[in-house]
Amino acid sequence: MFTKASAEDLRAVLAAFRTVKNGSWPQLFAAMDRRAPQWAFAGEAELAAELERYLKDSDAPDMAVRVFWKLGPKFLFAGCNDRVARDGGVTASELMGMDDFDSRLPWTGQASKYRADDMQVFAANVPKLDILERQKSSSGEVFWVRVGKAPILAKAGGAQGILGMYDILDDKTASKLFIERAARTPKS
Asked: Which CATH number does 7-184 carry?
């Protein structure tokens, strides 16, 4: 589900989607890499259909990745797959236009952290990948998520929003990632 967008905006969303996918989930959506060169020549309807396919595919039972994007300096949700909406305890159409601070969303306690990451990606125009953080679900459960975010770049070059993807991790996997990250961090 996503709000109506121009072909140019859809290209920007798809490019950000591809950036996060390739950075953190390279095994997903193999067709995206083959299709990317054609985006420059595709029209709005074709791009919208392609994006909708990726969102639908990401909701498949064997694929546990969540996809969302937020636009503007207020970082309002402008698109997502159904998994993100379910995590938020709302429908995808209800999520459109909300921000992370909306009291109807279960993760408002983490909203300041999410906003800080969004602002960093937005301001620097640089992806932020493999973020490990906690998220509260609509059932009240708190779990680990691995998140990747990339700027949605306008044709003029500045960011017009961010696209994020995340998957839910069990405690063992999250712990392993923390240990691996610590081992890669240079000691000062």
From this structure: 3.30.450.20
